Amino acid sequence: MRFFHKHLRRLLLFFLKRHPNLALDVLRHHPNLALDVLRDHPNLVLDALRRQDNLSFANFPGRPQRNFEDLDWLLVSNSSNRGLLRMGFDEAAFLFRFARSQPAAQILEIGRYYGGSAFLFAVASDHNSMVTSIDIAPHNDELLKVALTKSGFTHKVQLLVGDSCSGEARFDFYDLILVDGDHSYEGVLKDYEYWRKAVKPGGCLAFHNAAAERPHTVTLPGPFRLVQEIADRDREYYRREPDVGSLALFIRTQRPFS
Q1: CA pair distance 223, 158, nearest whole angstrom
Q2: How confident is the prediction for the chain on average, in pLDDT?
Q3: What residues contact residue 99 under an 8 Å CB cut-off, 6+ apart?
Q4: Band of pLDDT at residue 6, cut at 50, 70 and 90
Q5: Model pTM?
Q6: pLDDT tens for residues 116-164?
Q7: What is the pLDDT of residues 63-89, one digit of tens each?
Q8: Closest Cα partner for 223 from 188, 249, 186, 178?
Q9: Which partner from 56, 63, 225, 248 sits 20 to 30 angstroms from 184, CA to CA?
Q10: Three-class DSSP labels, the chain
Q11: What residues does CATH 3.40.50.150 cover in the chain?
């Protein structure tokens, strides 16, 4: 075991120098190892944090952002080295396609993190849409705002900082709500209970990290448990659709909430 640990550390140190995003993603999922490496090599870890370019809008490309293929810089195709958009390719493609299909869409995002999905919704939605994104502690808002300004999207994106249940939950209002904030069962349940009546009939309610439609998804126990409960107890109001990657999807039925 010591032999394995020694060589794993050596490999991580190599990747911290050459591929910081990949190494940092591994360390995020192994806190004990992260503390060990940080204790022995603090400068190397700090330098890797400074160089994780694809987790910042600092390298926002100069070309117009209009279609899904223009967003290649937001993500890469493997789960260990995602960029600003912390999603699989299939998940991002589904959300882009759904947002683009809704004229004058009202979109709510719960959990912004680095801002990649907020930017994706801004590109996908039409000129008359509104994307509202709520996060209690966003990581990248200043550079995200610069990217939105350069792309001409500021008029249709509202970046809110605060508790996810502090916004106005207007009945039958949103075409799409993406729940991707607190991933504990208690947290995601709170979000659902607060916002569940805000999706308009025919609209989509999506939970990230809540399904395992394919191998190598990042599926977390809290959201996974909740979507099973919704499918069971609220099927009159929400019809479960086929999963996409780790996205659990529901379409709001026409039945009014009692």
Answers
A1: 25
A2: 87
A3: 105, 107, 120, 121, 124, 125, 129, 176
A4: low
A5: 0.79
A6: 999 999 999 999 999 999 999 998 899 999 999 999 999 999 999 999 9
A7: 899 999 888 878 754 445 456 788 888
A8: 188
A9: 56
A10: CHHHHHHHHHHHHHHHHHCHHHHHHHHHCCHHHHHHHHHHCHHHHHHHHHCCHHHCHHHCCCCCCCCHHHHHHHCCCCCCCCCCCCCCHHHHHHHHHHHHCCCCCEEEEECCCCCHHHHHHHHHCCCCCEEEEEECCCCCHHHHHHHHHHHCCHHHEEEEECCCCCCCCCCCCEEEEEECCCCCHHHHHHHHHHHHHHEEEEEEEEECCCCCCCCCCCCCHHHHHHHHHHHHHCCCCEEEEEEECCEEEEEECCCCCC
A11: 76-252
CATH superfamily of 76-252: Vaccinia Virus protein VP39 (3.40.50.150)
Q: What are the CA-CA distances from residue 216 to residues 54, 90, 111, 256 (Å)?
A: 21, 12, 22, 37
Residue with token string 């995003």? 21
Encoded tokens for 145 = 């705002």
Residue 77: predicted pLDDT = 46
